[in-house]
Amino acid sequence: MRDADSGTARPVRRGRVARSLVVGVALVIVGFAYAVLLPGGAAGADGPQSDQIDEGRRLFAVGCSSCHGLHAEGGTNGEDRLAGPSLLGVGAAAVEFQVSTGRMPAAQPNAQIPRKPPVYNEQETAALAAYIASLAPGPAVPASEAYDISKATQEDVVRGGELFRTNCTACHNFAGRGGALPNGRYAPSLMDVTPRNIYLAMLTGPQQMPVFSDQVLLPEDKRAVIAYIMALREQPDPGGFGLGRLGPVSEGLWGWLVGIGLLVVVAVWIGAKVPRIPGGKNRTAHK
Questions:
Q1: Average pLDDT of span 238-263
Q2: 3-state SS, one letter per residue, for 157-224
Q3: How many CB atoms lie within 10 A of CB 60?
Q4: Cβ contact 59:128 at 8 Å
Q5: Looking at domain 144-233, which CATH architecture does it have?
Q6: Which residues are annotated as a binding site for heme c?
Q7: Distance (Å, whole) CA 191 – CA 178
Q8: Subunit info (predicted)?
Q9: CATH superfamily placement of domain 48-135
Q10: What is the pLDDT at residue 91?
Q11: End-to-end Cα spacing for the chain
Q12: pTM for the full model?
């Protein structure tokens, strides 16, 4: 009886041990998978990035939530707050561009938000970007090497010009001086925009600008476009006056107002210099 009893008890104990081992191994696998799949930027509750996100959340609640919603879900038209789009998924790059150029926070809703001096400093801007990036994945702020054109060659400038004329001239003008768009909107001039902000704009597509992601326009192509824009700034004006390089409209207007205006002045001056016959009026009357 003892042998039978002991023989029966052993399988039961072994089954319990096996189940415990299976559960333990499963927990280890889950923990390992979580550590591997956890986003690289995630940090512990007491990490420096967590502090930055908390600071960004505080700044957002004070300066942005009235338009974009308390959790960046987007605002609605109402009597007490403005309408703002959802910021979920826009990424840190979009926040960096909009806030560093002073476009956000906006003073009032318009067809297009103009550039102005920034409200937040670099640390506060980075905190806002970190907070928005923590809500949903989106384009990250690129490293300085992404928009560094110090090693750009003439070939890169030529290729950048081809890309710019193909994708950008419809709005920004062939010389990057900007232009008018429908419904009160406009494409700003690129003559005083930093390479970093040009890259961020291509990456995120602010306002009516299309998004040129890395799948649409490779990082090296973006650098080539930036190199071409920088070359445009150093290009001389063959006629002496650039006239905004807006094309035949400004040049034709200049020709009509100034050129023909000068001809009219000269014609009047010549007419005033024609000698008059003394007493000619009286002699005509006697005839």
A1: 70
A2: HHHHHHHHHHHCHHHHCCCCCCEECCCCCEECCCCCCCHHHHHHHHHHCCCCCCCCCCCCCCHHHHHH
A3: 22
A4: yes
A5: Orthogonal Bundle (1.10)
A6: 64, 67-68, 168, 171-172
A7: 9
A8: The cytochrome bc1 complex is composed of a cytochrome b (QcrB), the Rieske iron-sulfur protein (QcrA) and a diheme cytochrome c (QcrC) subunit.
A9: Cytochrome c-like domain (1.10.760.10)
A10: 94
A11: 163
A12: 0.69
